[in-house]
Design brief:
It is a single chain. By secondary structure, the protein is of the alpha/beta class. The protein has two domains: 30 residues, no CATH class; 195 residues, Rossmann fold (3-Layer(aba) Sandwich), CATH 3.40.50. It has eight helices and six strands, in the order ααβααβααβαββαβ. The mean pLDDT is 92. The chain binds zinc ion (2 copies). The site of one zinc ion (ZN) has 8 residues, from helix 2.
Length: 229
């Protein structure tokens, strides 16, 4: 398999060197994990020592309890674009394993019973072929020994790509976008998995639906997120 379908590097998109690795050793230096300190609520990297980012200090409310992100978004922005829109599904292995490795302690600390990927609308899923959040959740679940529940939360409203909307439009369009169809397993604490945390609007709406659906403790983990300053 390695010879027929050599793995591409998530950063430079060329065939990985040395072979057998999931990322080029050179490219590994180009991605930046969000380093301490980060906001204790939304996980945003802080410009100076402190507990909360400016938005959370000012009282920005979130439906989720806490969020963490692995990478500083600009350092992986192109890569995430290819991962989502250009069929580079294979990036999931490197990214899912790194999320498990660096944020496994956070996941265990929440006492989560499982992972729930932020779902795509069925129409978008058909077009894209896979849900990048579910791909990440499956690799993480395997690494951390946690089940992935992808039949609980559904996206019931088709929305335009978020990048084409401003903040207010996003908030309005995401209203009632998610729905819990069943919580037979009676989950109490879960981790919501997504690729990017920007304003948090998407995960907040998804978390609100989960809470309404009977899962009171929703934590968030994303591949990439923002930094202050
Ligand atoms: Zn590379
Ligand atoms: Zn914050």
């Amino acid at each position: 398999m390695q010879l027929l379908f050599p793995r591409r590097c998530p950063i430079c998109d060329r065939i990985v060197t040395p072979a057998g690795e999931k990322i080029c050793l050179e490219c590994l230096k180009k991605i930046r994990p969000i380093a301490a300190p980060w906001c204790m609520i939304c996980g945003k990297g802080l410009a100076e020592a402190g507990e909360l980012c400016e938005a959370c200090r000012r009282g920005r409310m979130h439906a989720f309890r806490r969020a963490r992100a692995l990478y500083d978004y600009p350092s992986v922005a192109h890569s995430i674009y290819r991962f989502k829109y250009e069929g580079r599904r294979e990036y999931k292995d490197f990214y899912g394993e790194e999320m498990a490795k660096y944020l496994g302690d956070y996941v265990r600390g929440t006492g989560a019973e499982g992972l729930i990927p932020v779902p795509l609308h069925p129409r978008r899923l058909r077009r894209r072929g896979y849900n990048q959040a579910k791909e990440l959740a499956e690799v993480m679940g395997r690494e951390l020994g946690l089940p992935v529940f992808d039949k609980i939360l559904f996206r019931v409203k088709y929305t335009a790509p978020l990048k084409e909307q401003n903040y207010k439009e996003r908030q309005n369009n995401l209203k009632k976008a998610f729905l819990v169809r069943q919580n037979d397993v009676k989950l109490k604490t879960i981790i919501l998995i997504d690729d990017i945390f920007t304003t948090g609007t998407t995960v907040d709406e998804a978390a609100a639906a989960l809470i309404e659906g009977g899962i009171p403790n929703v934590y968030v983990l994303t591949l990439a997120g923002g930094m202050e300053g």
